[in-house]
Design goal:
448 residues; Arc Repressor Mutant, subunit A; 4-stranded antiparallel beta sheet; alpha/beta; 8-stranded mixed beta sheet; 16% strand; Aspartate Aminotransferase, domain 1; globular; Aspartate Aminotransferase, domain 2
């Protein structure tokens, strides 16, 4: 094993050693569970100091590539336990906390609207009623319908966007059904579809969302029963459909009456692109999910779902056997936030701040020769030559990023990392320097 490691190392710095070992692990040449030679043995084989190898090992531990077992030695990370097999659990590029965590995909809490006034006003009890009342407060439903991108036959409120996707999938999908999704796609959605036994087919995206010809091919080759997509602020790429692309996709799907479209509008009011939906063309088979976590707060745990009655009725009927309805107290808070001028202005300010943070970081990376996209939302999708090497390099600087692989239904032409650009409040040039160094640390198979 020592010869394998020393033969792979061309740059004998700590970062170079870590990158070389990470590539051996990724390729399978260092299998899970393999015991690594001691620090002193590797240092002697490479002709470097034990301190250099110790630093390389520390970076690999931070990246989750190797694990120490005290006096038993250091080993290549073994098979993942059941929870960590989920794509969602793999989103964190490291197994430990790092000073700067850009792996999360969550909004900046300082940009969320203040809930104090809304909670005080909701405290008057106007939301309280009978267990048999409608699941959505009538005033909230009226506001939501005014905001809806097409006339939805039915509308309800559930406990967040992923809860909505889970409930729609439970109502509409059966084991073995073919389901079309964007490639790349949001990892928890892929986990969810796997859990219900669906066969997932990835459809490539470009800067305007799903590529029409690729959707046409997928529809032709598979009898898919559903298409899951993100109309705006696609996570992770930031892409968004425009009206022309939506019309193209609807034209392709029009002759496929058995296919249900499920839209995850997760970014909500912090998205800069205009609202768009295939429901404008296919209202009788489009379910639109409007989330408020990114714009108004993850702990509101609310999302609105609108679409054809046969799907929404199935969702509502199944909920009667569980929670019944989403908290009407929180619905009252959301209603207040959607109608209070101060809260509306605060969300608009957050939208502008996120746009500025994204564009500033993308511009700084492009100046350094790094390919990255972040057209909308809070995330940035950065191309890297080698995912594991880039994660190791960033961990060495105390930065955590999300690996791109969990987002991919099938491999893309290049590796990527997802960076939560919305959390970067200043220091864009310094961060861009570190990100660029991680990108170019491995070039032509050589760590530089």
């Amino acid at each position: 094993m020592l010869n394998l490691i020393t033969g792979a190392v061309q740059d004998r710095s700590a970062r170079g050693i870590a990158a070389a070992v990470s590539r051996l692990i990724t390729s399978g040449r260092l299998p899970a569970g393999a015991r690594l030679p001691t620090v002193r043995v590797v240092a002697g084989g490479l002709g470097v100091s034990p301190t250099t190898v110790s630093e390389a090992w520390r970076n690999l531990i931070l990246a989750g590539a190797i694990r120490t077992r005290g006096r038993s030695g250091t080993f290549v990370a073994g098979p993942l336990p059941p929870r960590e097999r989920l794509r969602y659990a793999q989103l964190r590029g490291t197994r430990v906390n790092l000073p700067t965590d850009l792996s999360t995909g969550v909004p900046d809490p300082l940009l969320l609207p203040d809930l104090s006034a809304a909670l005080r006003r909701a405290g008057d009890g106007r939301w309280a009623g009978s267990y048999l009342d409608a699941p959505v407060l009538p005033d909230l439903e009226a506001v939501l319908r005014e905001r809806w991108p097409y006339p939805a036959e039915k509308l309800t409120v559930v406990d967040g966007a992923m809860d909505a996707l889970d409930r729609v999938a439970g109502a509409a999908l059966r084991y073995g059904d073919h389901v079309l999704v964007e490639n790349p796609a949001f990892p928890p959605l892929l986990d969810l579809l796997q859990a219900v036994g669906a066969t997932v087919v990835g459809v490539p995206v470009d800067s305007a969302g799903i590529v029409p010809e690729e959707l046409r091919r997928a529809v032709r080759e598979y009898r898919a029963v559903a298409l899951f997509l993100q109309p705006r602020a696609h996570n992770p790429t930031g892409a968004g459909m425009d009206a022309a692309r939506a019309a193209q996709l609807a034209e392709i799907l029009l002759p496929v009456p058995h296919l249900l479209v499920v839209e995850d509008e997760h970014a909500g009011d912090i998205a800069t692109a205009p609202p768009v939906s295939l429901g404008r063309y296919l209202p009788d088979r489009t379910v639109h999910v409007a989330g408020f976590s990114k714009s108004h707060g993850p702990d509101l745990r609310l999302a609105a779902v609108g679409g054809p009655a046969h799907v929404l009725d199935a969702v509502a009927d199944r909920r009667l056997l569980g929670p019944g309805w989403s908290s009407r107290l929180l619905q009252s808070v959301l209603l207040d936030l959607l109608t209070d001028p101060a809260a509306v202005a605060r969300v608009a300010e957050a939208r502008s701040v996120y746009a500025a943070r994204r564009s500033t970081l993308v511009a700084a990376l492009r100046e350094r020769g790094v390919t990255a996209t972040a057209d909308d939302g809070i995330n940035l999708w950065m191309e890297v030559p080698d995912q594991q090497s880039a994660l190791v390099a960033l961990a060495a600087h105390g930065i955590a990023a999300a690996p791109g692989a969990p987002f991919c239904v099938s491999p893309l032409a290049a590796d990527h990392l997802r960076i939560t650009a919305g959390l970067v409040d200043g220091g864009h040039d310094d961060l861009a320097d570190v990100l660029a160094a991680a990108v170019f640390a491995f070039r032509n198979g050589v760590v530089r």
